[in-house]
Automatic annotation (TrEMBL):
Keyword terms, alphabetized: Coiled coil
Organism encoding this protein: Sylvia borin
Protein name in the entry: CCD27 protein
Coiled coil: 4-45
Signal peptide: none
């Protein structure tokens, strides 16, 4: 039953398609007959014309063809003008982009040169900082030796007491000032007694 129903549906579809094709065929045949009638009328008219009329008809057709061609040429010229304008605009854009590319490359070169200069300055500053660090270490070392000598000289004087713990710079200066004052007083006392 299912197979029969399927075949019936296919047959109905085919019949519908056949009717459509027949209808199209009839329409085409009708159009063909109309074209034949028109062609026959033109042929009859052309045959009934005199040679002068035929030439006039040919001239009219040629003029019509010339007008059509002129219109086509005008449209082509208009399109060509638009294309020329578009090409000019695109050429301007291309030139602008090329100029931007050149400027960008120059800017990149300037940036690279500036980066090299900055790197050179940074290297010089780093070298200078290293030299300053070495000099500072030397000065610090000399200062420590000098400080130790001062402490040793200050607290090796007769009657001085050994320092308790680590001394600050102010304590060292106070001890030195005390010794200087005492020696100045002693020298003044000797001078007042007439001793050299």
């Amino acid at each position: 039953t299912g197979a029969i129903s399927s075949l019936q549906r296919q047959m109905e579809i085919q019949e519908s398609e056949l009717r459509r094709i027949r209808s199209e065929k009839e329409l085409l045949q009708k159009q063909l007959r109309e074209r034949e009638v028109q062609l026959q009328a033109v042929s009859d008219k052309f045959c009934s014309m005199t040679e002068e009329q035929r030439q006039e008809e040919i001239v009219v057709m040629m003029e019509e063809e010339n007008r059509n061609l002129h219109q086509v040429v005008t449209e082509q010229e208009s399109q060509l003008a638009e294309q020329g304008k578009l090409i000019s605009e695109l050429q301007g854009i291309i030139n602008q982009l090329r100029a931007e590319v050149v400027n960008t490359r120059l800017h990149l070169l300037e940036q690279k040169q500036a980066q090299k200069d900055i790197q050179s300055q940074a290297d010089a500053l780093q070298h200078q900082a290293l030299q300053t660090r070495v000099a500072l270490e030397q000065i610090t070392s000399k200062f420590e030796r000098y400080r130790n000598k001062i402490i040793q000289a200050t607290f090796s004087v007769e009657g001085s007491q050994d320092p308790v713990g680590e001394l600050t710079d102010n304590e060292v200066l106070e001890a030195m000032q005390k010794i200087i004052n005492e020696r100045a007083e002693f020298q003044h006392m000797l001078k007042s007694k007439g001793s050299k």
